[in-house]
Amino acid sequence: MQGLLLINKPKGITSFSAVSAVKRAASEKRVGHTGTLDPMATGVLPVFLGRATSLCSLVLAADKKYIAEIKLGVTTDTCDITGSVLKEREVNVTKSDVDNILEKFKGKISQIPPMYSALKKDGVRLYDLARQGKTVEIEPREIEVFDLSVTKPLDENNCFSVNCHVSKGTYIRSLARDIGEALGCGATLTELQRVETAGFDISQCVDLESLNEDSIPKFLLSEEIAVKHLRALSVTKNQATRFCNGGQLSFERLNIENFGENELFRIKYKNRFLGIGIADCEKKQVAIKCIINYPEVSE
């Protein structure tokens, strides 16, 4: 079985558990997701099956959109409501204060990931170190916040919700933590839903419990739609065979111009998506990034 499933990950399970459920339902060993969601988070989780798993890394780099609920006055060790409370503070913040502070977090900013994360330090996962009671210095990373706007204003419980449109590598938990510190009272993330990634919207997703061996084919999408933003490069039958056998394609024999260094292309034979090629301008050829499908024998 091969293709793309758009899963609405439920609360309370890991992304790995969601993938395992798809493996069982599809009887397919090669299954991979494109961006981890914490157990408390819900929402869009693209899952590739079969040879399409080679495309996972390409979708990981996509921007993402979330709806997040943030509670002021509380900080936790995980930066979300599932963690142990470290400190509680009085909240003297107005709705206007929230609006003003959010403006300061838009654009390119430096962010320190949470200690409870899957990032590694000297080969060890940070969350493993955290569970051992160890703390280490975490290198800040540059991220970009394209949009950050209130969807539900500050209420009597000191909670408010925001739309977040962010670049890859952004931790919404860290964003909540930093917003709280900037407001002088601390904060933690209480709800998180990913509503869009790589152009896929929550409305397109299927609930995990709806998937079984009989239903999966109904929800399975072409893996090509995940890379539709890449330019298509149409090839002849001989070029298709050469590409799928590991050969490079010369720029001079391709019907396309203005190759960018390391530019990725969708390689197409007729209407069949064969895989991803990568441009090597020095050698003036397109090499294989990954093979997804092979030309039909009868073609």
Low-confidence stretches: none
Question: Class by helix and strand content?
Answer: alpha+beta
- The CATH topology assignment of the largest domain is Pseudouridine synthase
Radius of gyration: 22 Å
CATH class of the largest domain: Alpha Beta
- The rounded distance between the terminal residues' Cα atoms is 22 Å
What proportion strand?
A: 35-45%
Tell me the number of structural domains.
3
N-to-C series of helices and strands: EHEEHEEEHEEEHEEHEEEHEHEEEE
| pLDDT averaged residue by residue | 91
What does this structure look like?
This protein is of the alpha+beta class and 299 residues long. The protein folds into 3 domains: 3-61 and 199-225, Pseudouridine synthase (2-Layer Sandwich), CATH 3.30.2350.10; 64-197, 2-Layer Sandwich (Pseudouridine synthase), CATH 3.30.2350.10; 230-291, PUA domain (Archaeosine Trna-guanine Transglycosylase, Chain: A, domain 4, Roll), CATH 2.30.130. Helix content is 18%, strand content 35%. The chain contains 7 helices and 19 strands. The strands form 4 sheets. Strands 1, 2, 3, 4, 7, 10, 11, 12, 13 and 14 form a 10-stranded mixed sheet that branches. Strands 15-17-18-19-16 form a 5-stranded mixed sheet. A two-stranded antiparallel ribbon has the order 5-6. The radius of gyration is 22 Å and the shape is elongated. 33% of the residues are buried.
